[in-house]
Write a structure and sequence with these properties.
247 residues; alpha/beta; TIM Barrel; eight-stranded parallel sheet; 10 helices; 42% helix; 15% strand
């Protein structure tokens, strides 16, 4: 295993969210338990209630977390004003299946164009949930339509959708696959074999999903130690620093 592990997708706050402040202490405890040095995270308030309010909460609480947590801001195309709340984000997130809107969606097209033109957003990694059949294909069409040119991480790639995600990533070297939706050590090896370890990133969805199980799956995958290091650490560092993780 890598000496330093960076988790590219975590959450804090209850599911479903409730009124009041939601601290990051449960998430920090899970990271410490499993020896994970840092994580990109977002507030469940931003995911299920108000993207703008959640983004402000995320940036505020990550600032207080001593560097262990990096803020991810939710982009909700149904709330276009949310772009005013992303200053300070290290990653942007679109979660169409969770929020129940379609991937081929005119407001999403408008939002991606706006993100591409935003000095606060244009070079940030863009996390996009692709858990439904056809989402990856629709995402590729959206990227072509909008001319969006930043790095894109496909998250929640579940089961049979891996074949579709691999096809999308093969056609566009800006596109990465995250491990949070993968459910078998063979799926990690398949992704690495198809697009290279430099475009696979570790993510757990903790604490909603089990961080220990996510780490164990990467540890058991039939890949080289250097590939494992890239997935657990190196690729995330390059993405978060603004450098091309395929370099």
């Amino acid at each position: 295993m890598a000496d330093v592990v960076l988790d590219m997708f975590t959450l804090f706050g209850p599911v479903p969210p409730r009124p009041g402040e939601h601290g990051v202490e449960p998430l920090l405890a899970v990271l410490q338990k499993h020896g994970v040095a840092g994580a990109v995270t977002l507030s469940t308030r931003g995911l299920y209630y108000s993207a703008s309010a959640g983004n402000r909460e995320t940036i505020h609480l990550c600032t207080q977390a001593g560097g262990a947590l990096l803020p991810a801001c939710v982009l909700d195309p149904r709330q276009p004003q949310v772009l005013q709340t992303i200053t300070g984000a290290k990653m942007l997130c679109l979660l169409p299946a969770t929020q129940k809107w379609p991937m081929l969606y005119a407001p999403l097209t408008d939002m991606l164009r706006a993100v591409a033109q935003s000095p606060d957003a244009a070079n940030l990694p863009l996390w996009i949930e692709v858990s439904r059949p056809g989402d990856g294909t629709a995402l590729a069409a959206e990227l072509r339509e909008t001319g969006y040119s930043g790095p894109v991480i496909m998250g929640s790639v579940i089961g049979e959708n891996l074949i579709e995600a691999i096809a999308v990533a093969r056609a566009d070297n800006r596109v990465f696959i995250a491990t949070d939706g993968l459910r078998g050590i063979g799926e990690i090896a398949a992704a690495v074999g198809a697009i290279g370890a430099s475009r696979v990133v570790f993510a757990s969805g903790a604490p909603v999903q089990a961080l220990g199980a996510a780490l164990a799956m990467v540890a058991a995958a039939e890949i080289s130690d250097s590939d494992r290091e890239a997935i657990l650490n190196g690729n995330a560092r390059r993405l978060l620093s603004g450098r091309n993780a395929t370099a």
